[in-house]
Specification:
about 220 residues, 6 helices, alpha/beta, Aminopeptidase
Length: about 220
């Protein structure tokens, strides 16, 4: 069972659903935090962590929004890219978007060419989050864009993952550039370790990261 309200859902090219879920106080809320899992289809643990958090009741002073799986087509195909072979994290209409060769980092034929990208742009424009956390793999670091250095340090304290301002390679058309640098929204790219299907490892990952959910609900 999931203890959250369904705000919006859309269907992908391959007929899978992308959900926007909400958990919020009954009355007024302080801030809005958006958490996104599975930008890349071969990085599934973000959905696992979001699902585990939402499977239990908890209190929050903030409005929490979750997209457990942004790229369900890619996850079903076990590919980084979506069904159109586009890397969603290179498809945002940032000023540095580039048309690149068709490989696993292909940013699409034009900015925001993909349904998944346009859906996320819509969510950001409608809900105006004060903080966005995206859950990736496999580097086990806390990367950030925009005015998020202090938040990154706090998440580093919770997880033990070191803070890295740069991921170490160019990312034209990235979500972090579009939201963090160009729109001044604090964006955390939380790189989890490489996933496994081992139940013990999954539980250890949850124990290491569950404090982040308490932080965004009650502390941020």
């Amino acid at each position: 069972m999931i203890f959250a309200d369904l705000e919006v859902k859309i269907n992908t090219k391959n007929g899978n659903e992308i959900l926007l879920l909400k958990r919020a106080p009954e009355n007024d809320y302080d801030k809005t935090v958006l958490v996104i899992g599975v930008f890349h289809g071969d990085e599934p643990d973000g959905e696992y962590l979001i699902g585990r958090y939402l499977s239990q009741r908890s209190t929050t002073k903030n409005r929490l929004l979750f997209i457990p799986c942004l790229n369900p087509d890619g996850m079903a195909l076990k590919t980084r890219t979506n069904a159109n072979k586009v890397d969603l994290n290179r498809n945002f209409p940032a000023k540095n978007w580039q048309k690149t060769e068709v490989n696993e980092y292909f940013g699409g034929t034009e900015p925001a060419s993909e349904d998944e990208t346009r859906f996320l742009v819509y969510v950001i424009e409608k809900y105006k989050p004060d903080l966005i956390i995206t859950l990736h793999e496999p580097y086990a670091v806390v990367n950030y864009d925009g005015p998020a250095e202090g938040i990154a340090s706090r998440i580093s304290q919770i997880t033990g993952y070191k803070v890295e301002e740069s991921i170490g390679y160019p990312t034209p058309g990235s979500f972090g550039t579009y939201c963090g640098i160009e729109r001044n929204i604090p964006v955390i790219t939380l790189e989890l370790p490489e996933h496994t299907n081992n139940a013990k490892d999954k539980n250890a990952l949850w124990n290491k990261t569950k404090g982040i959910f308490d932080y965004i609900a009650l502390e941020f």
